[in-house]
Amino acid sequence: MVAVLHAGRKGLLDGVLQNGVARLKNDYGISASHISAAIGPAIGPCCYEVEKEIGLGFEQKFGGGVIKNRKEDRVFLDLQEAAESALAGSGVAKERICILDICTSCNRSFFSYRRDGVTGRHGAIAWIEE
Ligand SMILES: [Zn+2]
Q: How confident is the model at residue 9 (pLDDT cuts 50, 70, 90)?
């Protein structure tokens, strides 16, 4: 089985990934220990500067590693690390989590509302190969 989940800043805080892992278990009998996960491209901590209070909320929920740089009233947030923490907290083994280290703001192959001020659409395709 393949599941594709999308979570931005609000979705991560709202538990989209934890809910997805729970649904795989409850609806399909798939244990978190059998899940392999790939965390796709996202705006990186190099570019994702947010208000300090938002960063503190993430830090409380996902640990201090999600904040990569601190200014007086702003922080640089690592959404992919927050996603990894959410999955690991749901029982997915860290060695089974792969993070694609691609910042959608630095890499101009991707849309970035934060970079360009206009939105676009990304797609994802997932499949199982045997
Ligand atoms: Zn970047």
A: very high
